[in-house]
Amino acid sequence: MGGRTIGVLALGIALFGLSGLAAGPWSAEWTAGISLDPDSTLSGGVESTFLLGYATGTVLWTSDSEFRLGVGYLWQEFGVQGPVGAFEVQGDVLFGPSTTDFLYAQAIVRLRLAGVDVGFFYAVLGDAVLGGPADGAVVRLAGQVGGFEIASVTELGARIEDEEFHGVDIVHGATGCHRHYATDPVVPGEGFTGEKLSVGGLGFARMGNVRAIVYLVADGLECLAAKFEDVDLGISWIETDLEFAYDVEAKNVAVTPSVAVHEGLLCVEPHLGVYFGAREWEIAGFGLGGVALVSSWGGATIRSLTVLDPGRFVITTQEYGSVIESIEDAVENGDLYYPDYWELLSIEFVWGGCGGQDRILVDTYFNRVPSGVSGWARSSVETSVELSAATDLSVRVAVTTGGVERVESGITLRW
Questions:
Q1: How far is 35 from 395, CA to CA, in rounded Å?
Q2: Which of 70, 99, 126 is the last residue in one of the domains?
Q3: What is the DSSP secondary structure assignment for residue 279, as one 8-state letter?
Q4: Boundary residue ending a domain (70, 88, 113)
Q5: Span between the terminal Cα atoms of the chain, in Å
Q6: Helix %, strand %, coil % of the chain (to 5)
Q7: Cβ contacts of 373 within 8 Å, gap of 6 or more
Q8: 167 is a domain residue
Q9: What's the domain range around 271?
Q10: Contact indicator for 203, 231 with CB cutoff of 8 Å
């Protein structure tokens, strides 16, 4: 994509947003944080966000600036979101001011017409980003035909965030900071790169709502999947879902049942895999890759993740959901994960604050020691407290076998 097109897109987003400066109210949010690493090197970050909109309050323009001590002016993002006539539009542009680089831009246009949801997604990666320069688009159509829910996603050099794909993260290599966006231009150039078709509302006896998914790429069939929601086992206090996916390229079948007892009091989610051999449809093995247990009551949630097949499954980092995922999916989606941790115990408490929520989260990771048993590897404690409707305070401490890994504190002010 040429620099002229990038400039027009960025200028259009800026002008569309700036047109509301004189028309409506404004709000601001300022966040400041300081962190300390083991060698006592101080590094700080300051992030500011300004939201400005029309008097109707339906269109917002945003400016998000982030600074880091020792790095300088890290990010500058401009965005706009709101209705324009019958269309819902969103635009985002990201720059790296310290290196004067254009990093990313996306434009999203949605329209609901006669029961059909139409979405157009377009994104550009700058050449300063890993994987760039690249650009691509996605056209999404969704609606009901009879009793069926049908969605078509046509990929023209890009993917969009959904249940299978996690969008794109722009990562700053020196600090590890990242920005997340829904549209991922994964293939340079133009042209057809994929088609995902899903059909829901298929009912089979007690199998509940069944949704079938077919994913085709330019080289042929990529994946087949079926999701069974609200499977009826004849037991009123048990809710069951089932997900079945066949990855053609990796030649394996992933089966993920989910059983919830008494409205989520306990949820069990085993990750099963069927692996094929060199010959077509030759089954080479069957295994249990991992198990996730979640129990919630009141404002408390306890999660236990255990990886039983570390050669195929991993636990993703907190920024990527802290979930069990196959290594193939993690690599394909660009999700960061812990290669050495095979178990996570997480305890979270949430309670009411000043009109919002206060929160404390304790994550503890374990790895395997030479004797084959589980050994403690890392713990982190993160808490956020709403001091007032305009002030939040947060603290995070991470400890490993080598001692204190990180101490962070931050304050957020809104007005």
A1: 10
A2: 70
A3: S
A4: 70
A5: 39
A6: 5, 65, 30
A7: none
A8: no
A9: 264-415
A10: no
- Distance, in Å, from the CA atom of 264 to the CA atom of 297, rounded to the nearest integer, reads 8
Residue 318 lies in a domain: yes
Give the separation between CA 187 and CA 156, rounded to whole angstroms: 9
What domain count does the chain have? 2
In one-letter notation, the amino acid at residue 110 is R
Please give the model's pTM, rounded to 2 decimal places.
Answer: 0.77
CA angle 27, 31, 32 (to 5 degrees): 150
Q: Which helix (H) or strand (E) holds 120?
A: strand 116-125
Most distant CA pair in the chain, distance = 68
Amino acid at 341: Y
pLDDT tens for the 415 residues of the chain, in order: 444 455 445 545 544 444 544 445 666 777 777 766 665 444 445 555 555 444 456 777 788 888 877 677 888 888 888 888 889 999 999 998 877 889 999 999 999 888 889 999 999 998 888 777 889 999 999 998 877 889 999 999 999 988 778 888 888 777 777 888 999 998 665 688 889 999 887 666 566 678 888 998 888 888 888 887 777 666 666 777 777 787 776 666 777 777 777 666 788 888 877 666 556 555 656 678 888 988 888 888 999 999 988 888 899 888 788 888 888 778 877 788 888 888 999 999 988 766 567 889 999 999 876 655 568 888 999 998 888 777 888 888 888 888 887 788 888 877 7
Burial class of residue 403 (count of CB atoms within 10 Å of its CB; 0-12, 13-18, 19+): exposed
Phi, psi of 209, rounded to the nearest 5 degrees: -85, 120
Residue 39 lies in a domain: yes
Tell me if the bond preceding 133 is cis, omega within 30° of 0: yes
**410 residue type, one letter:** G
DSSP string covering 10-74: HHHHHHHHHTTTTTS-EEEEEEEEEEE-TT--EEEEEEEEEEEE-TTS--EEEEEEEEETTTEEE
What amino acid is encoded at 291 in this protein? Answer: V
Q: Is residue 101 part of a domain?
A: no
